[in-house]
From TrEMBL:
Keywords: Amino-acid biosynthesis, ATP-binding, Kinase, Nucleotide-binding, Transferase. It comes from the Bacteria. InterPro entries: GHMP_kinase_C_dom, GHMP_kinase_C_sf, GHMP_kinase_N_dom, RFAP_synthase, Ribosomal_Su5_D2-typ_SF, Ribsml_uS5_D2-typ_fold_subgr. GO terms for molecular function: kinase activity. Residues 219-303 form the GHMP kinase C-terminal domain. Pfam families: GHMP_kinases_C (PF08544), GHMP_kinases_N (PF00288). This is GHMP kinase. Signal peptide: none annotated. NCBIfam families: beta_RFAP_syn. Residues 73-138 form the GHMP kinase N-terminal domain.
Amino acid sequence: MICGEQRMRVDAVRVEVPARLHLGFLDMEGGLGRRFGSLGLTLDGLGTELTLVRGDPAGDGPGRDCDRARGYLDRLCEALDLETGFALRLGRTIPSHSGLGSGTQLALAVGAALSALTGRALPPRRVASLLDRGARSGIGVGAFEQGGVILDGGKGALDEPPPVISRMALPEAWRMLLVFDDANRGLSGTAETVAFRDLPPFPADKAAHLCRLALMVGLPALAEGDAMRFGAAVTELQSVVGDHFAPAQGGRFSSPDVAEVLRWLPSVGAAGIGQSSWGPTGFAIFGDAGTAEGAAEDARARWRGQANLRFVVCRGRNRGAVVETVSGRGEVAAEYEKVAKKTA
C-alpha cells in the first residue's frame, strides 16, 4: 500500500517480514457461506529479510528462496506492466515448508519492496491475490500488516484472501517454544490441494463449537492475559482440527518426533500446544520467559540424541513488517503499517 507521489528516487528497499503460527481453522464446514476462518499469531526473531535494488536481474543472489522470490517479482512486474530491471538479495529466511508461512511472507515482502521502489500501489491483499497466496487463510497478510494475534473471517464469495476481523496484542511476558523437525517437511502445492480435496466433511456442530471456543474462551483469555486459559483453548482447537487432518498427515501431528515432544511439554508448564499449519513445526505457549527457557533446556537434554529436533524460544510480535528505503538522502525505516498510512 506504499503509494503516492515519490519525492525522491528510491534506489534500494529492504523489507523484513515476520514468521507466523497458524493455530487452526474454525469452520471447515462452510454452511453459512464462509469457509475456514483462522486463528494465528505473529512471531518475533524469526523472519525473512529481502533487499530489492535497481539493477541487472543477473545480479540476484543464489539459492532456491531467491529463485522463488524472482518468480514472484516477475509475475508482479508482468501484472503491472513493469520492466524487470531489479536485482534481489535475501538475508535470513523463514524455513520453507515448515508451517510458518514462508511462501506468503516472501511474496508479500517482494510486493512491498516493489511498491516502495516504484511508487506503485500494491496493498498486501492485492499482492496475495496476484501471487495466489492466502487462498484459505488471512493470517499471513494480517501478520505482515500488523502483527499480534489475528482472527480472520474465512473465505467467502470474493476471490481474495479472507478479511482480518480481529487483531489483538500478545502479552509481552508470553513466549512460544517452537519444536522443529529438520528431517520432515509439511504439505504444500499440489499435495496440499489434494489433501484438502480428499478430507472428509467437517461436522457443522464441531465448527460451531470451535467458533464459540475462539470467541468466548480464547480471545477473552488473551485480553485478560490468562495464558493457561488461552492455551487450553488453542490445545482443544488443535486436537479437533488435527484429528480431522490426520488422514492426510498421518496423525494429529505430522511428525511423530514432534508429537512426542508436544505430549511431554504440558508437564513442564506449557499452557497450550499444537502444530502450525501442516507442520512439521510444533509449538507450545508459555506465560513467562523463564518457564519457556527452562522447558527448552530440558527438551534439548531429553532429546539430545535426535539431531533432527531443534528447540527455539520466541517472543510474540505486535508489529508487522519493516520497510527501509535507501535514496540519495539516506535511509529511512518504518513499520509497514506506518509507511502505508503516511504515503497512501
